[in-house]
């Protein structure tokens, strides 16, 4: 079974569940209570929109327990003496790895929390999570050509630029060294 919580120095990464996604989509005032964290004012961030939430919920519903951990992950900044636990971003995988061991990741950080290295830390955590599954051999990611901050996050995490994909996005790849649980 895939671990559904992953810790980094400043973040707790929590795998999305059907209950969390349902609350996020349909009962937003209960979502932070279930999550146990304060929401930023601009939630949801970036490309993590209602369509992404619905996609993750549909995939978790269709895939049952085997789908857990292969879709959305919430990035919660750990409490400090001056601030409570706060949801700062979302990321995750677009599904389990394919037959060759390739999985795709994506991520978004709330505007109020950008520029603090949290996206880099979130991606590091997703890479570590992929390694922990023992199933992923290669990760891919895409950014828009006019998003240098996102490109820097990937480069800082050992991804290499592979050129443009057919949709005009910059494609990145990274080899993963799987580690059995």
Automatic annotation (TrEMBL):
Question: By its UniProt entry, which CDD domains does this protein fall under?
Answer: NAT_SF (cd04301)
Which species is this UniProt entry from?
Answer: Hymenobacter volaticus
Put simply, this protein is called GNAT family N-acetyltransferase
Signal peptide boundaries: none
Domain N-acetyltransferase stretches:
28-177
PROSITE patterns recorded for this chain? Answer: GNAT (PS51186)
